[in-house]
Amino acid sequence: QVQLVESGGGLVQAGGSLRLSCAASGRTFRYYAMGWLRQAPGKEREFVAAISWPGANTYYADSVKGRFTISRDNDKNTVYLQMNTLKAEDTAVYYCAANRRLVVGTSYDYWGQGTQVTVSS
Predict the structure, then answer these.
(1) Which of 79, 111, 115 shows the shortest CA–CA distance to 4?
(2) pLDDT (0 to 100) of residue 11
(3) What is the pLDDT of residue 28?
(4) DSSP for 16-67?
């Protein structure tokens, strides 16, 4: 089992920035690819970003490319999502997820509880 706890969500004005964190515990963080996904009200959960183990490769949804950056600190068992130039359409619950195999999609084995991000226009 991998336990994931997100933090860093909140309310921000359009054009602003937030950094989400996801702390992993339980089974070793090592060798797991990590992802960030989001779900807006009335919409399906969607892929946002993913990072391989140990962090050489990153992937992004077209909607966030150039604005969001995923990174990981393997010594701290933590993955981050730096979100810049936020837009109202970025409003969603953001989930951290883990999988042994890197997934550019939504099929992850382990999920956090989610953190709300609200962007006011």
Answers:
(1) 111
(2) 98
(3) 67
(4) --EEEEEEEEES-STT-EEEEEEE-TTS--EEEEEE-SSSS-EEE-TTTTTT
Distance CA 34, CA 101 (A): 9
**By C-alpha distance, which of 61, 74, 58, 83 is closest to 8?**
83
* Residue whose structure tokens are 């962007």: 119
Which pLDDT belongs to residue 69? 98
Residue carrying structure tokens 């999502």 = 81
How much is the pLDDT for 21? 98
Helix (H) and strand (E) counts for the chain?
0, 11
Region 80-99: mean pLDDT is 97
Edge to edge, the sheet with strand 78-83 lists 2-7, 18-26, 78-83, 68-73
